[in-house]
Design a protein that fits this description.
Blueprint (H helix, E strand, L loop, with lengths): L17 H18 L24 H11 L9 E8 L4 E11 L2 E7 L17 E3 L3 H27 L12
Antiparallel strand pairs: 1-2, 1-4, 2-3
């Protein structure tokens, strides 16, 4: 018998490469995840801030007493006016009221905001109340101011030009 005729055992089969690729993919994925930036540790939730309570609405007796002291500065229109009371907490004129005058009685109604023009003349600057006037009263005041300014301007211009000399007609004789 010929030794060449003997079938030689088949060469051993190569191991599959699939598990190698899976391991390589897993290793690359793990490296990629490790390379990602880390999140900063989240701070513990802060203690809740103390609740800020809104200021209690002013007492009606407060506005009545203040208005009684400063009423002489009120500008009435059809027996009503509007005022704003100074609030020390907000440091503004934030408490607004409409005042109705019937005889000697005064009735106060809280309103969200002033709807009339604020009085800018004839009021003491340290007043705890901000007074209003009607639009018609405001227009009259501004008209008076314009007229006074015009009169002052005209008088100044006349004084600057000096006395006017009227040309005398020539005597035909």
């Amino acid at each position: 018998m010929d030794e060449d005729d003997d079938p030689s055992p088949p060469p051993p089969a190569k191991p599959s490469q699939i598990p190698s690729w899976v391991v390589l993919g897993f290793a690359l994925g793990a490296l990629f995840v490790a390379a990602l930036p880390r999140r900063a540790a989240e701070p513990a939730p802060a203690a809740p801030a103390p609740a800020i309570r809104p200021a209690p609405p002013p007492q009606v007796t407060t506005i009545e007493a203040v208005f009684a002291s400063w009423e002489q500065y009120a500008v009435w229109s059809d027996n009503t006016t509007q005022v704003a009371l100074w609030d020390a907490q907000t440091k503004s004129y934030s408490d607004c009221y409409e005042v109705l005058r019937i005889g000697e009685n005064r009735y106060f109604r809280s309103i969200p905001a002033l709807t009339r023009p604020v009085l800018t003349h004839g009021v003491v600057p340290e007043s705890p109340l901000q007074f209003t006037e009607s639009p018609a009263q405001r227009e009259k005041f501004l008209g008076d101011v314009r007229q006074e300014n015009w009169n002052s301007f005209s008088a100044g211009a006349r004084a600057a030009l000096g006395p006017s000399e009227v040309a005398k007609p020539a005597n035909p004789k």
